[in-house]
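$ fold --in a.seq
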Amino acid sequence: MATQHSRSAARLMMAPAVVLLLGWMLVPLIMTLMFSFKKYLPLRGGDLGWVGFENYVRFVSSSAFWPSVVATLTIVGGVLLITVVFGVLLAILLNQPMWGQGVVRILVIAPFFVMPTVSALVWKNMFMDPVNGLLAHLWKFFGATPIEWLSQASLPSIVMIVSWQWLPFATLILLTAIQSLDSEQLEAAEMDGAPPLKRFGYITLPHLGRAITVVVLIQTIFLLAVFAEIFVTTGGAFGTRTLTYLIFQRVLESQNVGLGSAGGVYAIILANIVAIFLMRAVGKNLDA
């Protein structure tokens, strides 16, 4: 009886937080759905009534829609590839005994705590500037012509900037997973004469399966909504306009809330499709 009473008390105490959380999620979603079926122009007449699926047809038939989807998936795929591969390598390196190991780990993880806007400004002005940037001076040192990164290699530049921000997160998760690996397995394999690559492929990498799954899923959720880095660097030009940035342009620059809301619904659909695909592709590791 006491157990039932304590459960009821726990539910009662949790209820306000649950209601607040549901309201925080459901109210914006319901408003987005409602506005997506309306012609709402705040500075040009306000609410002009219901238009059905007109906003959805206009948004998906726009010449900028599919290029924005491709740009979004390209950035997500590129960042995931870089952060997972280099995250595994960095985690293995940081797990080795070295002088000043704690300081090195802090320096590696530090970029994750830098605001995206600040990070993008640093990369834009200090590294990728074609005249005074560090990369430009490096190119000149080797006698090559500096690259105008944000115009000539715009998507790779965005991928590089975002990867620099998310690599510490992947490294931290993977380092934690490596530290939980039973060292006796590696020692036994080494005594049996297994080379380092085989020890990595047959012992370390399978052990990191769950951690890699977590990294991929969490990063994908946030990477689908990348905005600040593009806003600060290219402004959506040179093929870097993602779906999120296209929605921003429709809502704020074109002042068409209905059209932007329809784009938001498409973004939710895209996020769910990607999430389902990832869960089917790598989610099996969670059950291993």
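$ fold --in b.seq
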Amino acid sequence: MTANFMLVSDDKYTKNLGICTYSVLHNMCPAVEHVRIFVMDCGITEENKAKLRRQAARFDNAELVFHNIEQQLDEVSTQVETHWHKAIYGRLFFPELLAKYDNMARLIYLDCDLLMNQPVTELFEMDLQGKCLAGIADSYSYARKLALGIDMDCTYINSGVLVIDTARWTALNASKNIIAYLNSFPEKLIYPDQDAINAVLAHEILILHPRYNFMWQICQNDIPKMLRSIDHFYYSAEELSEGLQDAAIYHYAGHDMWTIDGLTPVHTDVFRKYRRLCDWRDCRRHFSSIRNGVLWLMIDIKRKLLGIR
């Protein structure tokens, strides 16, 4: 089996891309015949591409493919206001790869701010029940459905991990329709790419167990307390506890893994493991400020008292 993954990065985010792709190769290469990682390139320097290729070459059955999409990103209107780099739209341009590569019936998109800690071969074999996508329900699901006018019967997902049926995506002309939505309703968007994907494909989404995209917010809080604070959350306390104990993918959800910002003293053991192994091992985490250093230590104490990794 060929396991196809897609990530998106500009040059500024290369360090995250490096540790993330290493975690994928470390877990998937022993589990399948061939691992192919597509990097949708939003301006990565040749020097950093060479470093990423050298790291991938440590795995005999790995293939790293760079696909430059800098010009295509201009298809999204500048009226879409966001503090994120326009690279967030990079995942929408994968269909042009389908004619060039075989074994692409199933493609898994991954954000660069996550780490894989177990193989996810089952995601390539699961029945998507005729749906276009699978992902995990987002904690902001109820509020975003209200804001975007999405049917309450649907579930708004986090776009950090997407299991994609490429044939269904193509048949729905999903990329073109999502870009059209971005350009038509910029005033509705808070998480532009994620909002548009959910709005356009609302009835085309299958929900995954939270272990496949386990976000720091869940580890940060006592789970029952967190559930009391979120309206109509999709998952039960039992499912979240299962995810906490057996996460295959840890998601730092918008935070730079290498800069400790006072919010995310979680998954530190997982981060240290892959930092030690990847080709960015000489880099060290640093606090973004003294204040955040103090906050981080306070939350870390709470985390340890609760027995959270």
